[in-house]
Amino acid sequence: MDSTDNSAIMTIDLKRSRFRIHKSTLNKMGNPQYVQFLVNPEEMFIAILGSDRPLAGGTANRVKLVQLPNHSIEFYSNTLLYALVNMIGTLDFQSSYRMSGEVDVANRVAYFSMKTLKKNERRSPINGQRVRSIED
User: Fold this and answer.
1) H/E element holding 84?
2) pLDDT tens for each residue of the chain, 136 residues long
3) Which is it for the CA torsion 66, 76, 108, 69, positive or negative?
4) I need a labelling partner for 71 at 20 to 30 A (CA). Which of 1, 31, 34, 85 fits?
5) What is the model's pTM?
6) Is 96 exposed, middle or buried (0-12, 13-18, 19+ CB in 10 A)?
7) Distance (Å, rounded) from C-alpha 117 to C-alpha 113?
8) Residue (of 91, 99, 102, 83) closest to 25 by Cα position
9) Is residue 108 a contact partner of residue 21, using CB atoms and an 8 Å limit?
């Protein structure tokens, strides 16, 4: 990985109310012990703030780094999911979406614009191959 690569990736699975922060993003954030999700509806941004201790008065989520080293970290939140849906509008609740952004390494924050939201192709349950939906 290039040391100047500050790209960030997060996946949102609407069907399971799951937010997956890719391991490379956490690594660039300095492998924080806690993360807090911040939403800016006016600018259509979501940010993930990393810290090594829970933030006073905040809703920090503990990062369990005991998972295998190359795996992403998952969080579940209906509240955050519905805040994002209200901000964006209509989304397919049977699908997952991928967002790209960048990491501010000095401040341990990953920023994602909701404008980068891209629907993931679904995998066929039979052979694991990606299949396109009817809308594609």
Assistant:
1) helix 78-88
2) 445 789 999 999 988 889 999 999 999 999 999 999 998 989 999 999 999 988 777 677 788 766 556 678 888 888 888 888 888 887 888 889 999 999 999 999 999 998 899 998 766 566 555 555 444 4
3) positive
4) 85
5) 0.78
6) middle
7) 8
8) 102
9) no
Distance, in Å, from the CA atom of 105 to the CA atom of 81, rounded to the nearest integer, reads 26
Return the amino acid letter for 55.
Answer: L
Alpha carbons 83 and 39: distance in angstroms, whole number: 8
CB atoms within 10 A of CB 67: 12
Task: List, in order, residues 6 or more apart from 113 with CB less than 8 Å away.
Answer: 44, 45, 99, 101
